[in-house]
Each structure stands twice: as structure tokens, then as C-alpha cells.
């Protein structure tokens, strides 16, 4: 595996890493995530084609189905941010290759649900090592210390916000419990 710092001098500077501070940290972090995603997708395309003999978009469908026993086509389209018509074509290709099954949703004549076949599960298991190595190498190539710090900032801001929301909810729950206990105590 490549050393993350090996290519650090080749990496583009983080968005606005200069003195202007035009972009907020969240946007800088998002731009790094987009660049990293693009690099991973670019490297994965050939590995996916070689190992699974499917397109990158079809691979994304397979990955979603690997996480869920089955999904409605509309949900897959939502999760991937793809038009339903394009997804219909991709699923037809996957079905033709014997990698997914399609069936109508019980009680909904328009609903279609898709699931992985055993063949797809087998192929994904066989390819998983090469695919994960490709992702790791692509990220190491595009993410130096400055890029990792930008993403950490994005994630830590999200974690702080989640923690604050949880703390506020806990405080409200405690106040309701105390208020209910006081009401019961006053009624006695």
C-alpha cells in the first residue's frame, strides 16, 4: 500500500488553504470529500469491470444490495441520486447477467423490489480484497495531511452538532421527568 505522505507534494492544496479564508471549513472539507470520491471512482472503474464485469453505476447498485436483503427500485434511485429510468436500464443489465432478481412488491402493482443473487454474492466476496485495496490506495494518493485535517474538521463539526442535539434532548427528557414527578407529588 502506498505511503499517504509519499504523494503529499503532488496533491493540490486544500480549497483556500491560503490566507483569505473565503470558504468555511465545512465547505473546504466537502470539497476534499468530493475530490477523494472522484479519485476512488476513477480507480475503481477498471477494477470493477475486470473483477465483476459490470459498470461502476451497476456496481453501486450491487453494493447497496449487499447491505440490504432487498430494496425497492425507487429507494435505490433515491440512495444513489439517479433517475429511475437510468436505474431501470442498469438493473435490467444486472438481471441479464444473473446478478439480481426483480419481483413485484406484494400489494403494490407498480412497485418493484430487487435483490442480489447467490452469483452476485460470490463475485462480491471474491472481489472484495481487490476493491478495498483500490479504495485505500486511491485515498492515500489524494489525501495528504492537509486534506485529512479538512475532512476531520467537517466530521468533528458534525459530531459536535450531533452531541449537542443529544444533550438538548436529554435535558428536555430530564425536565419532563422532573416536571411529571413534581405534578404527581403535588397531586398527592
SSE arrangement:
Elements lengths: L24 H28 L3 H12 L3 E2 H8 L3 H13 L3 E6 L2 E9 L1 H25 L2 H43 L1
Antiparallel strand pairs: 1-3, 2-3
Helix pairs in contact: 1-5, 1-6
Tell me what the structure shows.
This protein has 188 residues and is mostly helical. It has helices at 25-52, 56-67, 73-80, 84-96, 118-142, 145-187, and strands at 71-72, 100-105, 108-116. It folds into two domains: 21-143, Arc Repressor Mutant, subunit A, CATH 1.10.10; 155-188. The chain is built from six helices and three strands; from the N terminus they run ααβααββαα. A three-stranded antiparallel sheet has the order 1-3-2. α1 crosses α5 and α1 (25-52) crosses α6. This is MarR family winged helix-turn-helix transcriptional regulator. InterPro entries: HTH_MarR-typ, MarR/SlyA-like, WH-like_DNA-bd_sf, WH_DNA-bd_sf. Residues 1-10 have a biased composition (Basic and acidic residues). Residues 1-20, 169-188 are annotated as: Disordered.
Concise account of the structure shown:
This protein has 188 residues and is mainly α. It is built from 6 helices and 3 strands; from the N terminus they run ααβααββαα. The protein has a 3-stranded antiparallel β-sheet.
Structural class, from secondary structure content? mainly alpha
Strand order of the largest sheet: 1-3-2
The top-level CATH class of the largest domain is Mainly Alpha
CATH homolog superfamily of the largest domain:
Winged helix-like DNA-binding domain superfamily/Winged helix DNA-binding domain
Q: Give the overall pLDDT as a whole number.
A: 81
How many structural units, i.e. domains? 2
Helix percentage range: 55-70%
CATH topology of the largest domain: Arc Repressor Mutant, subunit A
Q: Can you name the CATH architecture of the largest domain?
A: Orthogonal Bundle
Reading the helices and strands in chain order gives: HHEHHEEHH
Unreliable segments of 5+ consecutive residues: none
User: In DSSP terms, counting alpha (H) and pi (I) runs of 4 or more, how many helices?
Assistant: 6
Tell the overall outline. globular
Radius of gyration: 23 Å
Largest sheet: 3 strands, antiparallel
Intertermini distance: 70 Å
| Number of DSSP-assigned strands | 3
Question: Which range does the strand content fall in?
Answer: 5-15%
Amino acid at each position: 500500500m502506498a505511503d499517504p505522505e509519499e504523494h503529499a507534494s503532488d496533491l493540490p492544496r486544500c480549497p483556500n488553504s491560503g490566507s483569505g479564508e473565503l470558504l468555511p471549513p465545512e465547505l473546504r472539507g466537502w470539497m476534499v470529500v468530493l475530490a477523494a470520491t472522484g479519485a476512488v471512482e476513477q480507480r475503481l472503474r477498471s477494477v470493477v469491470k475486470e473483477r465483476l464485469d459490470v459498470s461502476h453505476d451497476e456496481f453501486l447498485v450491487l453494493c447497496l444490495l449487499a447491505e440490504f436483503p432487498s430494496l425497492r427500485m425507487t429507494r435505490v434511485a433515491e440512495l444513489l441520486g439517479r433517475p429511475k429510468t437510468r436505474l431501470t436500464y442498469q438493473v435490467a443489465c444486472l438481471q441479464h447477467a444473473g446478478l439480481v432478481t426483480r419481483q413485484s412488491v406484494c400489494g403494490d402493482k407498480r412497485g418493484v423490489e430487487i435483490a442480489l443473487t447467490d452469483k452476485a454474492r460470490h463475485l462480491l466476496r471474491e472481489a472484495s480484497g481487490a476493491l478495498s485495496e483500490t479504495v485505500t490506495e486511491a485515498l492515500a494518493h489524494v489525501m495528504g495531511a492537509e486534506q485529512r485535517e479538512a475532512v476531520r474538521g467537517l466530521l468533528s463539526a458534525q459530531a459536535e452538532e450531533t452531541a449537542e442535539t443529544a444533550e438538548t434532548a436529554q435535558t428536555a427528557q430530564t425536565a419532563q421527568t422532573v416536571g411529571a414527578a413534581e405534578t404527581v407529588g403535588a397531586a398527592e
